[in-house]
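yo

u said u wanted the structure for the complex thing, so here. seqs first:
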Amino acid sequence: MNLTPPSLYCVAIDQGCLLKPRGRWCIDYLELLDQLLLTTPVPHDCRVRVDASELTDLDSAGVMLVVNRLRAQGVVWSNIDLVHFSRHQLALIHLVAERLDARGQPRRRRAAWLPRLGRKAAESVSDLVSQFVFFGRIVEAFADIVRRPRLLRLREFTTQLEAVGLNALPIVVLMTFLIGVVFAFLLGIQVQKFGANIFIADGVAIAIARELAPLLTAILIAGRSGAAFTAQIGAMKVTEEIDAITSLGLSPIQVLVVPRLLAIIIAMPLLTFVGVVMGVLGGSLVANAQLDVTYYTYFERVKSVLPASTVWFGLAKTPVFAAAIALIACRNGFAVQRDARSVGEYTTKTVVQSLVAVILIDALFAIAFPEIGL
Amino acid sequence: MSPGRASDAILQVADLHTNLGGQWLHRGLDFSIGRGEVVALIGGSGTGKSVLLRHCIGLTRPSQGQVKLFGENICELSTEQLTKVRSRYGVLFQEGALFSSLSVAENVAAPLHEHARLPPRLRDELVAMKIRLAGLPMEAANKRPSELSGGMKKRAALARALALEPELLFLDEPTSGLDPISAREFDHLLRVLCDSLGLTALMATHDLDTLWGMVDRVIVLYAGKVIADGPVKEVAELDHEWIRKYFSAHSGYR
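structre next:
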C-alpha cells in the first residue's frame, strides 16, 4: 500500500490560486491535514483550482476537512474548480459538500447547580407520589381479586412461588446455618468465661428466632428476588411486552405484580422458619463440640427458654419485609426507561431501597415491641 | 488501496458448513467478493443469511470451512489481529443496535474513541459530518436512540458503521422497516457512498427494489447452498422454482 503522508501546495496562478493536495488525505492523517489547511492561507476573493493529480487517496473525512476549512477562510464553494479528480471522488466531494451545507451542531448545555437541585427535588417528590399511586393500583387490583377470585393468575403465582421460595431454600439454609455456627462460637467464648455454658442455648435461640433469621432472609430475598423482579419487569418494558399486556385488555398489575407480591409474602415466613431451625441447629453443633453441652441438654434448654411468642414475633415481621421488597422492586421495574442502562440503574435502586426499607421496618418493630418475652 | 490489489477478493467464503442445534444450516457455501462490489445475499427466511453475516464478521465460527477477510482467515486470527481487522469493516445491524444509553452523536463517536486518536474538536466535526452524511438532521445528534424513528435509527447506525472510513460494509436488511421513499433514498445513499468511498458491501436483504436498483451481484441461498451467483438480471431469469417465485412476487404488485 502506498503510504505517502499528505502535503499541500498553494501557488498563485493567473486568475486566482492553485491548491495541490498530495498523498493520502485520509482519517489516519486528520490532525496533520488540519494543520496543513490552517497554515495555508487561501485567498477568498478569486477562483481556487484544486488539482488532484498527485492525490493518492481521499476519504470523506479528508473531504470534510477541506470543505470546512476552505469555508472557514471565506472561500465560496462555487468559486472552486476541481480538476483531475476521478468520477468517484467527485461524487464523494459533492455529496459531502452538499450535506455539510447546514452547519452547526446544537451542543447540550450542562445546567447550573440550582436548576439541577430543583429538578432533583421535583423528581424525588414525583417519585414519592408515583409510589403512592402504584400502591393504590395494587390495592385496587387486590380489591378486584376479592370480588372476582378468578382474576388471580394461579400459574404465574405458583411459578413465582417456586422461584422465590423453593429455589431460594438452599442458600437460606446454608446462610442461617453458618450464621448459627458463627454466632454460637463467638457467644460460646463469652459464656465459657463465666462457666455458664448452658446459656449458649438461650442466646442462640432467641437471637436467631427474633432477629437474625428474619433479617438475613429478608436481605437475601431483597438481593435475590427483588433484583430479579425489577430486571424481569424492566426488560419486559424495554421489549414492549408490558404494552402488549395492556393492549390485550389485561392489567399489568394483575398479571405481573399481584402474583409476585403474593408469592413473596407467602414464601418469606416459610423460608424464615427454616432459617430459624437451621440457625438453632448450627448453634447446637458448636455447643456440643466446644462447650460440652450435649445435644439433648441443648434442645431441652431451647425448648424451655424459647417461647412460641418470640418465634411468632420473628415470623410476623417477615410478610411486612416481603411486601416492602415486592412493592419497591415492581415499581422500579415499571419505572425502567427503554434503554439497557436504566435496567441496571433501577435494579441497583431496588436492592438499595429494599435493604434500607427492611432495616427501617425492623427498627420500627423493635421499638414497638421491645420486650423479648423471656 | 493501491491499484494492484483492486481485483483481489476482499471476502472469501470457502466450503462453509454451519450446524445449528443438530441441523445443517449451511452445507458448503463458496463465494467471494471483490473490492468495490455491492453484493446482495437473498434467500427465504431461515436460510441463514444473518448467521452467514455473523460468520463473516467473526462473531461466530462456522462448524467447518473458512472465511477470509482481507486475505486473512478470521478463524485463525488472534484477538489482537481480529481487532485490527474489525476496524476495517463496518456493520449495520438489523435493528440498528445503537447503544441505548448514548446519544446519537456519542454512538457515532464511540468507534472513533476506540480506534482513532483524534483531538476532540476534530472528532466532533467528523461526527457531525457523518451524521449529516447519513442523512440525519443535526437536531438528531443529541437525541437518544429511543427517541428516534426506525428510519432515523438506521441512518444513525449507518453513520456509526461509517465512522472509521471502513473498506467493507456488512448490512443486515438495511431497508427493512423503512417506508419506500426512505428505503430508496437509503439505497441511493449507500450506492453513492460505496462508489465514492470505494466501499465493498455485503447485504442480506428482502427488498427487491434494492436488488434492481443498486446491487452489482446477487447471491442466492437455498437449502444450505449457493444456488445462484451473478448480476440481478441473469439471476432473475434462472429456471429455479424458488427464484422464479421470489422475483414474481415482485411483479405481482405492479
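The domain at 35-61+85-251 of chain B is CATH 3.40.50.300 (Rossmann fold). The CA atoms of residues 14 and 30 of chain B lie 5 Å apart.
cya
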